[in-house]
Amino acid sequence: MKKLITTLTALTAVTAFNTYAQSPDENLNESGIYVGGNYGYLRVEGEDEFDDDKDVWQGVLGYKFNSYIALEGSYIDFGDYGNNVAGASTDGYTAALKGIVPIVGGLSAYAKLGQLWSETDYRLAGATTTEDDESVFVGAGLSFAVTPQFLINAEYVVYDTELDADQVADDLEDTNFETDLKQASLGVEYRF
């Protein structure tokens, strides 16, 4: 009798999981607003001797047009980097076009291309200055739907702090693609 109950319980669980694993695709194809947040690792590599590894926080707001395209904006806090004598603190806003490819069940892959508008506060031996910048970025990631509204994301984004969208449009051949900020993060997303 115990084997029968165990077998029935296992079959019920497998059937329920299989039913859910197929159903999120329908809901995930719908358009709509989503919000989310990411926490991750930031590698700062630059010519200004501020090479450092830091945590990064990001808040996300997006709109999914269909199964394959979304427009996404975010606020990013890159934190402080440097040392006691010289350092910097950077935060900014982004806008990106996000391409999505549903794979199976609730699993999707995506890629982003966008622009970062940032502000960096530099400090050197007690003196401070602020500099605004524009940067192009690219990223890619995987997304898994835990439920049709709640998703978990893992992504990698590369910010080129020497390059802005106007430079790319003006003359691609003479553009410097040296990258200074690399972000790997985990996040959550809620779709309304």
From TrEMBL:
Q: Where is the signal peptide?
A: 1-21
Q: Which Gene3D superfamilies match?
A: 2.40.160.20
Q: Which InterPro entries match?
A: Beta-barrel_OMP, OMP/PagP_B-barrel
Keyword set, alphabetical order: Signal
| Stretches assigned to coiled coil | none
In what residue span(s) does the Outer membrane protein beta-barrel domain sit? 10-192
Put simply, this protein is called: Outer membrane protein beta-barrel domain-containing protein
UniProt source species = Marisediminitalea aggregata
Lineage at the top is: Bacteria, Pseudomonadati, Pseudomonadota, Gammaproteobacteria, Alteromonadales
